[in-house]
Amino acid sequence: MTQEALPGVPAPLREALAAAPVPQVTTVAGCDISWFSWGDATRQPVVFVHGGAAHSWWWSFTAPLLSDRYHVVALDLSGHGDSGHRAHYSFAGWVEEVAAVVERLPGGLPPIVVGHSMGGMVATLFALEHGSRMAGLISIDSPLSKADAANFTKDNGVLAQTRSYSSRDEAVARFRLLPPQDVVADELLAHVARHSVASTGDGRWSWKFDAKVFLEHPEDRLKDLLGVLDSLVCPLGVIAAEKSDVVPESDRERIADMARTAPAERPVVYWPIDGGHHLMFDRPLELVAAIRDTIEEWRSRRKTAEEAGS
Length: 310
What we know:
Layout: H1 11-18, E1 22-28, E2 31-38, E3 45-49, E4 71-75, H2 91-104, E5 112-116, H3 118-130, E6 136-140, H4 150-159, E7 164-165, H5 168-174, H6 186-194, E8 197-199, E9 205-207, H7 212-215, E10 236-241, H8 249-261, E11 268-273, H9 279-282, H10 284-309
Parallel strand pairs: 3-4, 3-5, 5-6, 6-10, 10-11
Antiparallel strand pairs: 1-2, 2-4, 7-9, 8-9
Helix pairs in contact: 2-3
């Protein structure tokens, strides 16, 4: 997509889209996992994990804005995007896929893992298992407890229905965000939609994600991931969308309290943003700024702690 085709998109996002990603594939437990990278591969990696029914292109107009300082990576979990499908899905399997991609990255520098929505659950589980080798975890509007699981159950029911369309254009026109929300530019929604559909081989077009992910939504996750965040050994950042119902107010209060009381050597940063659940669509520049600022805040707090202890 040329920048001329994006008249309603803010200039920094147009520049991000102009930065072509480097495509790669890693095989994990017999399934091909597709992933992209932007920037200098010798720099510290920031690994983005998408939400349910999404894919790496959801990050294509935000993540590259971090490539001036980091090696930015975005993967498609199995059952999503251009990665392969499995007979059965599990959070443990998705964690293994993130680990395999991280293992492929050169330089051996500890990654910062960023997860949105369902991807935040995957990223949190990854941090519980691999936190000692991470530079930090950032969760973006992710339902880490089941305090309001009814919202997800409703959306899963919609996504579990297999649909097909007579043309790619028809499929793209039907693309919608769940839950519904405003977007900063319709062109961004169309851009992601075009990367969300594939031919079914019989003249029809359908979504790339495997509906079975939502028909048999994996349940091998801790019922209250929020309750185990205190056991993380890496820095934590939580970005909440204030116009979203995905993370209930009670959970936000718990996270804000953690941020106030966390030790400086294992900092917790809480960033509320006045936007919808899919912040990359309505508050993309604020989201990138919050990620940058979270990482800088970690460094500042840990430096202060080290100086106080010297």
